[in-house]
Write a structure and sequence with these properties.
Mean pLDDT: 93
Number of strands: 7
Pfam family, one: SNase
Protein name: Nuclease
Helix content: 10-25%
Number of helices: 2
Oligomer: single chain
Order of helices and strands: EEEEHEEHE
Organism: Cryobacterium fucosi
Structural class: alpha+beta
Largest sheet: 5 strands, mixed, barrel
CATH topology: OB fold (Dihydrolipoamide Acetyltransferase, E2P)
InterPro entries: SNase_OB-fold_sf, Staphylococal_nuclease_OB-fold
Length: about 120
C-alpha cells in the first residue's frame, strides 16, 4: 500500500536509543506530566537492516543527529506501521527532518509500505 499521510500530532520527546537508522525508542511528553516510552519508525523511509551494507552508516548518522538523551520535536501519524510502531517525523533544530536528511545523504530510500523490492 503506497499511501502518503499527513502528520497528526506534535510533541517533544527524548531519544532513548536507536535500534537502526529508521527505528528509535522515544519517551514522549504527552502533556500534563504524562509520558509514554515506545518504539517509533521514521515515516516514509527505509534504511538497511543489521548485517546489510549501509546499516552502520545510517545508524551512526542518526546517532550524530539525535543521540540518546536529546530532546527533539516530533510529529506523529495517526496509524502505526504493520509491526505496531508509531510513524514519526523527527526534527532538527533547523527544522529539517531526520527522515529527509537520511534520504538526501543516500542513507535511506523512500518507503511508504508494501514490498521493498
Amino acid at each position: 500500500m503506497n499511501v502518503t499521510m499527513e502528520p497528526t500530532f506534535t510533541y517533544f520527546a527524548r531519544v532513548e536509543r536507536w535500534v537502526d537508522g529508521d527505528t528509535v525508542w522515544l519517551t514522549v511528553d504527552l502533556g500534563f506530566r504524562i509520558t509514554a516510552r515506545t518504539d517509533f519508525r521514521l515515516y516514509g523511509i527505509n534504511t538497511p537492516e543489521r548485517n546489510q551494507p549501509g546499516y552502520a552508516e545510517a545508524n551512526a548518522r542518526v546517532n550524530i543527529l539525535a543521540p540518546a538523551g536529546t530532546i527533539v520535536p516530533i510529529k506523529t501519524y495517526k496509524n502505526p506501521d504493520k509491526y505496531g510502531r508509531w510513524l514519526v517525523d523527527i526534527y532538527t533544530p533547523d527544522q529539517r527532518t531526520l527522515n529527509g536528511i537520511l534520504i538526501s545523504e543516500g542513507l535511506a530510500v523512500p518507503y511508504f509500505g508494501g514490498s521493498r523490492t
